[in-house]
Amino acid sequence: MGAGALKLSLVIDRHRHLKWKALDPLEHFLMVLCGISIAGFTFSVFLDVVTRELGSAWLWLQLVTTGFFAWGIFIGMATATRRIDHLNLVEITKRMSGPKRSFLEITNRMIVLLVGLAMVVFGWQNFLNDLGSFRAPSLIPLATYTASVPISGALIVLFSLEQIINGWRHGFEGPEDADDFAGIVK
C-alpha cells in the first residue's frame, strides 16, 4: 500500500491461513450488519425509554428492538465464527502443534459445524412454523425474526468448513500463536 492508501476493511488478518479471500467481502458485510444491529438496538431502546417517560409510548419500538436484537445476536455469532472469536478452544490449542493440535482443532470445528447444521435444520422448521404467527399489534410475521437462525447456521457451517479445509491443507498454527506465546514468556 502506498503512503496515501487507506485500508477501510473490517476483515482482520489474524488466522489468515484459515480464511479464503473470496469470503472477505462477506465478513466485511456481516461486520457492517453487526454494527447496524447494535446501533439500531441501542437507539430503539433509548427511544422506547424516552417515549414511555413522556407518557406516549410507541409500542412498535419493542418489535424493532426485538428484531435488531435477534438479527444482531445470530449474525454476530456467524461473524465471530469466521473471525475465530467465538466457540473455540484457542487458549488450549495455541500452544500445541502437529497432529495433536490438528485433531483438537478439527474436533472443535466439527462440533461447531454440527451446531450450525442443527441451527439450519431446526431454525428452518421454526421459521416455517412462524410464517403463520404474527406479533400484535403490528401483525409482523414472527418469521421475520426467526429467519436469522437458519441464515446464521448456514454461515456458521460455511465458515467452519472453510477453517477445516484450510487447516487441513495449511495446518492450524499461525504466526499469531508464536506472538501470543512470546508475549507471555517476556
**Unreliable stretches, pLDDT < 50, 5 or more residues?**
181-186
- The dominant shape is elongated
Largest sheet: 2 strands, antiparallel
DSSP strand (E) fraction?
Answer: under 5%
Name the helicity range. 55-70%
**Helix/strand/pairing class, anyone?**
mainly alpha
End-to-end separation: 32 Å
Question: What order do the SSEs take from the amino end to the carboxyl end, as H and E?
Answer: HHHHEEHHH
Radius of gyration: 20 Å
Whole-number count of domains: 1
Mean pLDDT across residues? 86
Side-by-side strand order of the widest sheet: 1-2
Total number of beta strands: 2
- Count the helices. How many? 7
Q: What oligomeric state is this?
A: single chain
Which tags fit this structure?
mainly alpha; two-stranded antiparallel sheet; disordered C terminus
What do these coordinates show?
The chain has seven helices and two strands. It is mainly alpha-helical and 186 residues long. It has one domain. A hairpin with a 4-residue loop joins strand 1 and strand 2. The chain is elongated. The protein starts with 23 loop residues before the first helix and ends with a helix. The C terminus is likely disordered.
